[in-house]
TrEMBL record:
<dbReference type="InterPro" id="IPR029016">
    <property type="entry name" value="GAF-like_dom_sf"/>
</dbReference>
<keyword id="KW-0804">Transcription</keyword>
<dbReference type="GO" id="GO:0045892">
    <property type="term" value="P:negative regulation of DNA-templated transcription"/>
</dbReference>
<dbReference type="InterPro" id="IPR050707">
    <property type="entry name" value="HTH_MetabolicPath_Reg"/>
</dbReference>
<feature type="domain" description="HTH iclR-type">
    <location>
        <begin position="5"/>
        <end position="67"/>
    </location>
</feature>
<dbReference type="InterPro" id="IPR036388">
    <property type="entry name" value="WH-like_DNA-bd_sf"/>
</dbReference>
<keyword id="KW-0238">DNA-binding</keyword>
<protein>
    <submittedName>
        <fullName>DNA-binding IclR family transcriptional regulator</fullName>
    </submittedName>
</protein>
<dbReference type="Pfam" id="PF09339">
    <property type="entry name" value="HTH_IclR"/>
</dbReference>
<dbReference type="InterPro" id="IPR005471">
    <property type="entry name" value="Tscrpt_reg_IclR_N"/>
</dbReference>
<dbReference type="InterPro" id="IPR014757">
    <property type="entry name" value="Tscrpt_reg_IclR_C"/>
</dbReference>
<dbReference type="InterPro" id="IPR036390">
    <property type="entry name" value="WH_DNA-bd_sf"/>
</dbReference>
<feature type="domain" description="IclR-ED">
    <location>
        <begin position="68"/>
        <end position="251"/>
    </location>
</feature>
<keyword id="KW-0805">Transcription regulation</keyword>
<dbReference type="GO" id="GO:0003700">
    <property type="term" value="F:DNA-binding transcription factor activity"/>
</dbReference>
<dbReference type="Pfam" id="PF01614">
    <property type="entry name" value="IclR_C"/>
</dbReference>
<dbReference type="GO" id="GO:0003677">
    <property type="term" value="F:DNA binding"/>
</dbReference>
Amino acid sequence: MGSNMPAVRNAAAVLRLLASNSRPIPASAVARHVGMPRSSTYQLLQVLIDEGLVSHIPETHNYSLGVAAFELGSAYLRKSPLEHLAQPILARLVAQTAQAAQLGILHGREVLYLLKEQPPTPTTLVTGVGVRMPAHLTASGRSMLALLPRQQLLALFPRRESFVDRTGVGPTNLRELRAVLAGERERGWAVEEGAVSEGVTSIAAAAHELSGRPAASIGISFRAESVRPEDYPQLAAYVAGAASELSTRLR
């Protein structure tokens, strides 16, 4: 077992290096950082690719974190004090907006809802605790996807089949998704209208780590007929403020 320890340390060093870079990097940079021969570096990278921890971008011959790395991070968050930090923020958001509020994290191509707060008159919606939804269709998911580097988005959605459809609304390929994310990133919040459930609208914003990577999302959901579209920006301001507060608490 002891003979495997250097390999484990090298693998950990590779993952930390990829996590600290906002863009995919070449194998030569990995080899320099870890201090390994290129041949050994390629072998190690291939093992990490096989395990889903690293993604290879054929067009550029570069490497980035894989989907399994995001899943490990999500597993950590599920066991961390995230819910305890977010609960009073969600409760305040419900009081401000009179809408159901939820906390979500990325789990591969899905958003996993960890916490939900209801207004005095509860509304039955699909965003219950433990529910998973396609990230590209939900406001919660897209608010976090908008903060991912371009190549990591490609790693999550490598082909058209990666895009699940529920109601016929929402992006169906990577080009469409990137266009939607660009607008939502510039605006600072995401909105989804009927892409998950007909007649239900959601508004969400991402809380992020100090590095800028998404840590979680805070959102509200409501029946479309209960809120006028011209009121969305005011609701979004409350949502974005809640996400900003959670970002501060996570640092």
